[in-house]
Amino acid sequence: MGIEFFTRLPLHGEAEFLAGDPRNRGDWARVSGVENTGATSNYQVGDDFTYIDYLAQVARAAEINGFAGALMVNAPTGEEPWTVCSLLARETKRLNFVTAFQPYHFSPYNAVQSAATYQRATGNRLVWNIINGGSEVIQRQVGDATPHDDRYIRATEFLDVVKGYWYNESFHYQGKYYSAEGGGLKYPLNKAELPIICTAGSSEAAREFGAKHADYYLMRAEKPSEIATLIADVRKRAAKYGRDNIKFGLSIDTIARRSEQEALAEAQRYLDEAAEKQRLHASAAHAGLRSARVLSFEKEYADKDGSKNVNDFFIHPNVWSGFGYIGIPPGVALVGSYQQIVERIKEYNSIGIDLFFLAGYPHLEEAYRLGEHVLPHFKNQRQALQRIPEESKYRIA
């Protein structure tokens, strides 16, 4: 089966060391009496070289090393993804940018018009990752009190209206959250392609939303058998909507090194640092009172409370959950030699994963490791992202 590789841009600072460490790149650390030493860590507005310039370095490195795109994670504490996408599109030639946003952030027509402009300017290099909030606490902090399942009803309406606007010059709609009375994309904006749509979330509401609207349903890494079960469930749901060709993506970090021993030593370094800073506790995985499903291996964290043994956190060969244990999302990493990383990617690909989001720390250096030693093994399988054909469903005769 086909396969494609994207990476991730660190919109909230690097994490070669634990969050808040003044040695990290970017100005997210603020430790009283300690000088920041990482690149752009002392950035001031107006400086010649900014953190966005560092992100541009990572984006160019990703493109040079053969990644097809980059994910922009949306968090209230980080840079705004759509803005960064727009800035970096002019710094790259072919790299696709995945902007994560919530329907709460935009009106459907604003999203349509903005995306059409972006697509025209970049040659259709925008991918959408529609998210609906993983933490009830954070949702309220940013002003959204809509209950969890209702957010997915809103998101379903949002994309119904977006697709209606995109494929019609005069679209009408009446829903619980949105209405339209004759608006739509007109020439020449309608020459642009609707962004490929990704979404994630493992709740019943999230699965149903993804089954109806996503071209790619994205997952957090867990044991391959559990991934296979989730894929089967979403495929069954998608078939109800006549969408038999939905595809699947996996977000997983990497600690890829020349030998397994080198990789294990780097993973161990994170646990040792967490122990030094007294962050070895199971609650790190659930910080922020997130509403996402607790994965099976996360339920086992309590039994390992205080452990700093790197081997305690392998849930499958080379699949390490230690990042989640110490609170570094997305929580799971492929840890091993380059050849071991290749084998694990092949295993996940064999059960239905078409798109991999691979990144490590620092992002710049790991892009080169992966691009030089892992991605070349898949050059004959690479397949560009594909949209599920459904324009006819939304075009009004």
TrEMBL record:
<keyword id="KW-0285">Flavoprotein</keyword>
<dbReference type="GO" id="GO:0046306">
    <property type="term" value="P:alkanesulfonate catabolic process"/>
</dbReference>
<dbReference type="InterPro" id="IPR011251">
    <property type="entry name" value="Luciferase-like_dom"/>
</dbReference>
<keyword id="KW-0560">Oxidoreductase</keyword>
<feature type="domain" description="Luciferase-like">
    <location>
        <begin position="44"/>
        <end position="354"/>
    </location>
</feature>
<keyword id="KW-0288">FMN</keyword>
<dbReference type="GO" id="GO:0008726">
    <property type="term" value="F:alkanesulfonate monooxygenase activity"/>
</dbReference>
<dbReference type="Pfam" id="PF00296">
    <property type="entry name" value="Bac_luciferase"/>
</dbReference>
<dbReference type="InterPro" id="IPR050172">
    <property type="entry name" value="SsuD_RutA_monooxygenase"/>
</dbReference>
<keyword id="KW-0503">Monooxygenase</keyword>
<dbReference type="InterPro" id="IPR036661">
    <property type="entry name" value="Luciferase-like_sf"/>
</dbReference>
<protein>
    <recommendedName>
        <fullName>Luciferase-like domain-containing protein</fullName>
    </recommendedName>
</protein>
